[in-house]
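Explain the record.
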Amino acid sequence: MDANLGGKAQATLAGTEPDIAIEVTSGAKERAWMLDKCTNCGATIIGGRRDEYGVFCSRECQSFYRYPGFCPACAAESTDETARPSVTVNGIGFHMYGSRDRCPTCNSVIRTQALCVLYVPVWFFGKYRVRYTGTHSYLSRKLRKV
């Protein structure tokens, strides 16, 4: 055991093989079990939301893993046109506003995309059915005009 590690961990590398053996104290083993990967997006999480499908970092990841894509009813009320990327730099860019009419099947919502200046919407581009695939990503379909 290496004296620099203080007896808490030991790592050995067997020749040029990529196998690394690590011996850790019991306290560190308990902490290591707390870290997990999100079943949907692969993000490293502590704790998370657990169900029969796996462990998830957010409600959005959990919902998208259970039902990927839009349900038939939401697909029928929208077109294949997608929203512009929501990018805002120093308050100027495109942003999605609002959240209404949550679908009970696929958990998507209706949001409005707008051009904003200093975070204030100045021009609206349309309403979209938005389905979050993770905490910072989404799928979108433009709603049909009635």
In short: The longest strand covers residues 120-132. Residues 42 and 86 are 22 Å apart (CA to CA). The chain has two domains: 3-66, 72-142. Residues 72-142 form one domain.
